[in-house]
Design brief:
heterotrimer; B: four-stranded antiparallel β-sheet; C: alpha+beta; two-stranded antiparallel sheet; 12 helices; 51% helix
Chain lengths: 235, 398, 397
């Protein structure tokens, strides 16, 4: 498809010769804009490696990655400025919110568009818009340390969306949360995906939220297998 | 205002305060700061010019009494502190053999006198013989002429006459000689007597014995003083004044004298004499200052400080002497005129006792003169007038 | 773009201010040391400037009168006045000695001078100039004396009639100015016991104590007790003549040495102050290294505490040079705070030092530049650590 993210035959080998390890073996994935898919697998299965490849922080060994219609990797990086790629086309949501402690909430979110070259005013306006959408606008001027865990997580989601990237990679976003909050996060992700037409990959092994995905990629020993999920609706 | 903005505001405020303090310290102290000065207005003042010198108390006249020949002191009759009158016996030198020599001289004179008597008698004797010889010679001459006696007898008598004449002459000379001898020995005797008299040391004038330099038994040479006398009411202060600071020195100036032994008391006196010969080595002029009422305990050699009062100058333009500066060899003052100080060369006259100095040329009455400065001034110095540069001393300063 | 460094400083301002204070005190000590050196040089220059002289004439083959002792006859100045180009020639004596005031002794340099001639204090801050030829003194305020105090120098008591400022010897001792003749006596005349024993010795010597020669013994005693020496003659050169030419003239007199102002400065600064200067220089280097180490350590520690944030920043697309710039700006901000605190501290405690501390604006500017450079270099350690951070570290798991 034209938008979203498509991965074909992605492989990653660490090391050489006899000690070589194939972390990823011929992975194929495809996510449409607005879709939220789960990437599920045990530790050591290669899901972190896959995330790193998708996040353009490590270089795959082989394969092809297309992002928002643009081929970014075809057996070699097609773009030289990976950092700009990450800044503009990929959003990250982590296990912990990882907000910059010395910036207030608005600036944490606005930082990303500022890095992309927007004026401070535009960036902050975008930030406020996203914070409102995530229902944390009332904490716009607060310091990250003053927020609750859930609020921080929502701010980090806003940050991930700030540059309107075509894809968001979420790495165990619900791991430390209880089921109520975990489902709230998933609900938000779905909301944002639909609202901003972003493809979201959620790496998780949290049993609480796996049922919510409509599609799930299982990964084991570097290979992925697609399967349909339960797709339980959230309100 | 939330915490970030408040913090930012506080930070900016603190930063501004720090920079302000920084700038303040840079201008208050260090080379950028303005120089603090005090000023005074030049005004007409009655100056009390004074001259100052230090001196030593001396006696106008000192007499060194001693023998005119070497000898040994036999006795000293007076002691230090005694008052003596003119002609009073002070000491005596041992005559040694002088008495015996005097006796010998006297005896020699007596003997010479006897020799004169002898010579006179011999003269009388030879005179009578001569008379006889002359008479005989005449008689025999006549007889010879008449042929009554032989020519040899006549010659013999004539010879006798000549001999008697010669004897008479000799006796005359001998008498003269012994008279001269007598005179000579008389003179020698008088000399010995004079010398004997000289061994009695007498006071040449009324005075006070100031020093006793030789004791009985000590040997003294000619000219060495045995005693020193001073006239007690002739003590004056021999004051030395620096040649440069002695303008106006003349006899008759009133003087204040402070003795070292009585530092609190000021004695009055006046300049009795200015010595015509100054000390070229120490570059001082010498003035003799007499005391109106010399204290009884005054001693020769005492140090004294002398302040002479010159006649007060009429109201003259004066400034504090502290305002004088030297710039490029010229003497002058800094005037506080407008923004920057201005150097005005001046010529100064007399200095007064209160530290003010007369200004002859260079400034006008009413000019604001810079007196005390923290640092040397230049034409482009920034100055700041303050009332005083040093804190006022506490009331109990020594 | 917001300033990351500024936000970080604002956020942990306590840490920055405290570190800045500590660093500032260290920088203050460094600036004070430089000020002490400048003060010593200024003392030496003040000594030379305040004398008002262009040439110093001293005993041949000496470096006097400040660096070495030098003794001249006091009538030498008359011959010097006759040289072409000499406008003024004045005798001066210098002697560092204890001066008694009340119950206490002060160490001071007693200067014998002649009023109106080179060697007299150039300006007063209180009182008046010397009026009498004897027993008056002008003292530097560093002695603690006031106008009206009485001080004792050797045999005589002196009235302090004037005060002056910044008249110190090259060793930092305050100066007390008294008339030349009194100073000669103070320096060259022995004490009473020595005089009495000298007189006894002369009286026992048959060559001196000849009874036949009246006054010989007195003359010899007076000759031995006289004090006709001075330490130097200060010359002022007339307009239009060069000091070097006049100095050459003076040196042709085989028993005199003459120094121009530049040569005196070199003697004082290069020779007298050289050792102290080297010591101070070493201190400055050590303090600078210590300051650099402290800044490096602080910034490195701060950076290490931000590794996670740096990884996140890199991941979300922050340039390496933006992160490096943030660290650099923090280091320089710390340096700036430290410098301002140090400059204020140095200025505040400078008057408390026993010696003169001179803080020059040029030194402050130079100090600021050095602090900035040092901070820049010190931050390289942290910057290297920050650049090595792998953005993938943010993706844990």
């Amino acid at each position: 498809m034209a938008e979203g993210i498509r991965i074909e035959g992605l492989s990653k080998r660490y090391g050489e010769g006899e000690t070589a390890v194939d972390a990823l073996k011929d992975v194929n994935m495809q996510i449409a804009p607005g879709e939220v898919v789960g990437l599920v697998g045990p530790s050591g299965s290669g899901k972190t490696t896959l995330l790193k490849c998708l996040g353009a922080v490590i270089e795959p060994t082989r394969g092809r990655m297309t992002l928002g219609g643009e081929v970014i990797y075809d057996n070699a990086w097609k773009t030289r400025d990976l950092r700009a790629l990450r800044r503009d086309r990929i959003g990250f949501v982590f296990q912990a919110p990882y907000l910059i402690p010395f910036l207030d909430v608005t600036d944490n979110v606005a930082l990303v568009p500022m890095l992309a070259g927007r004026t401070n005013k535009e960036a902050r306006a975008r930030a406020v818009e996203l914070l409102q959408a995530l229902d944390v606008a009332h904490r716009a001027k607060a310091q990250p340390s003053e927020l609750s865990g859930g609020e921080q997580q929502r701010v980090s989601i806003a940050r991930a969306l700030a540059n309107r990237p075509p894809v968001i990679l979420a790495d165990e976003p619900t791991a430390p949360l209880d089921s109520e909050r975990a489902l709230a996060v998933v609900r938000i992700l779905n909301q944002m995906a639909t609202q901003y037409q972003t493809a979201i990959i959620v790496v998780t092994h949290d049993e609480k939220i796996i049922p919510t995905f409509k599609r799930i990629y299982h990964i084991r020993d570097g290979r992925t297998v697609e399967e349909a999920g339960e797709g339980i609706e959230l309100h | 205002m939330n915490s970030t903005s408040r913090r930012r505001f506080a930070f900016i405020l603190a930063g501004a305060a720090l920079v302000g303090i920084f700038a303040w310290t840079a201008t208050r102290s260090g080379p950028l700061a303005s120089i603090r000065v005090t000023v005074e207005t030049a005004s007409r003042d009655q100056l009390q010019p004074t001259l100052f010198g230090i001196g030593v108390v001396e006696a106008r006249r000192t007499y060194n009494v001693g023998p005119t020949a070497a000898g040994r002191v036999r006795r000293v009759v007076v002691d230090v502190g005694d008052s003596v009158g003119a002609g009073q016996l002070l000491a005596e030198i041992d005559p040694v053999d002088l008495d015996q020599r005097l006796a010998s001289s006297t005896a020699a004179v007596a003997r010479a006198r006897s020799a004169v008597d002898t010579a006179a008698a011999q003269l009388a004797d030879s005179l009578s013989r001569r008379e006889v010889a002359v008479a005989n010679a005449r008689r025999y001459d006549e007889l010879g002429l008449k042929g009554f006696v032989s020519a040899s007898v006549t010659e013999a008598r004539s010879q006798e006459q000549k001999s008697a004449e010669a004897q008479f002459a000799a006796a005359t000379a001998t008498l003269a000689g012994s008279r001269q001898d007598l005179a000579r020995l008389e003179a020698e005797r008088q000399a010995a007597q004079q010398q004997r008299a000289n061994l009695r040391l007498l006071a040449p004038a009324d005075g006070l014995v100031a020093a006793r330099d030789a004791e009985p038994g000590s040997t003294v040479v000619a000219g060495q003083a045995v005693l020193r006398l001073i006239a007690p009411d002739s003590l004056w202060v021999k004051a030395r004044l620096d040649q440069r600071l002695s303008t106006g020195l003349q006899a008759g100036l009133p003087a204040d004298i402070v003795l070292r032994s009585q530092p609190g008391q000021v004695l009055k006196g006046k300049v009795a004499r200015v010595e015509p010969i100054s000390d070229s080595v120490t570059e001082e002029r010498i003035a003799q200052i007499s005391l109106d009422l010399p204290p009884a305990t005054l001693s020769v050699g005492e140090m004294a400080e002398v302040t002479l009062h010159l006649p007060a100058a009429k109201l003259e333009l004066s400034i504090p002497s502290a305002a004088l500066r030297t710039r490029g060899g010229k003497s002058g003052v800094w005037l506080n005129a407008g923004d920057r100080p201005r150097f005005a060369p001046v010529r100064v006259g007399v200095s007064g006792a209160n530290g003010r100095v007369q200004v002859l040329t260079g400034i006008q009455q009413g000019d604001s003169v810079i007196v005390y400065t923290e640092r040397d001034l230049a034409e482009d110095s920034r100055i700041q007038v303050v009332p005083s540069l040093v804190p006022a001393p506490p009331a109990s300063a020594t | 773009m917001i300033s990351l460094a500024g936000r970080d400083i604002l956020h942990s301002w306590g840490k920055f201010v405290l570190t800045g204070l500590g660093l500032g005190l260290l920088i203050g000590v460094t600036l004070s040391m430089a000020g002490i050196y400048r003060g010593m040089v200024d003392d030496a220059k003040a000594l030379l400037n305040n004398s008002g002289a262009d040439l110093w004439v001293v005993q041949k083959d000496t470096q006097g009168p400040y660096a070495e002792s030098s003794s001249l006859r006091d009538d030498v100045y008359r011959g010097l006045l006759g040289l072409p180009g000499v406008a003024q020639a004045a005798n001066v004596t210098y002697l560092t000695m204890q001066v008694r005031h009340g119950e206490t002794d002060e160490r001071a340099m007693v200067v014998g001078f002649e009023p109106g001639q080179p060697g007299e204090p150039a300006y007063l801050v209180a009182g008046r100039r010397l009026l009498r030829g004897h027993y008056e003194a002008i003292a530097d305020v560093k002695t603690g004396l006031q106008v009206g105090n009485r001080i004792r120098i050797r045999r005589h008591d002196y009235d302090v009639v004037g005060l002056t400022r910044r008249m110190v010897s090259s060793g930092g001792d305050p100066m007390i100015f008294i008339p030349l003749k009194d100073a000669q006596e103070a320096q060259f005349l022995k004490d009473n016991d020595a005089l009495v024993s000298d007189r006894a010795r002369n009286a026992a010597n048959p060559a001196f104590n000849r009874p036949g020669v009246q006054g010989l013994l007195d003359a010899i005693n007076a000759g031995q007790a006289s004090n006709h020496n001075v330490n130097a003659v200060l010359l002022r050169v007339a307009d239009g003549y060069s000091a070097d030419a006049v100095a050459q003239d003076v040196r042709r007199w085989k028993h005199l040495q003459a120094f121009t102002r530049e040569q005196m400065e070199e003697i004082l600064i290069a020779k007298l102050i050289a050792t102290s200067a080297k010591q101070i220089g070493m201190f400055l280097v050590i303090l600078t290294i210590v300051s650099a180490a402290i800044v490096a350590f602080i910034i490195y520690t701060m950076t290490l505490g931000k590794i996670r944030e740096i990884a996140v920043l890199k991941l979300i697309g922050t340039r390496n040079r933006t992160i490096a710039g943030m660290i650099l700006q923090q280091a320089m901000g710390l340096g700036l705070i430290g410098f301002v605190v140090g400059e204020i501290a140095a200025t505040a405690w400078a008057p408390a030092f026993p010696k003169y501390v001179l803080l020059l604006p040029t030194d402050a500017v130079r100090g600021l530049a050095i602090v900035m450079v040092v901070c820049m270099l010190a931050s390289t350690l942290a910057i290297r650590a920050a650049l090595k951070v792998d953005p993938a570290a943010a993706i844990g798991g």
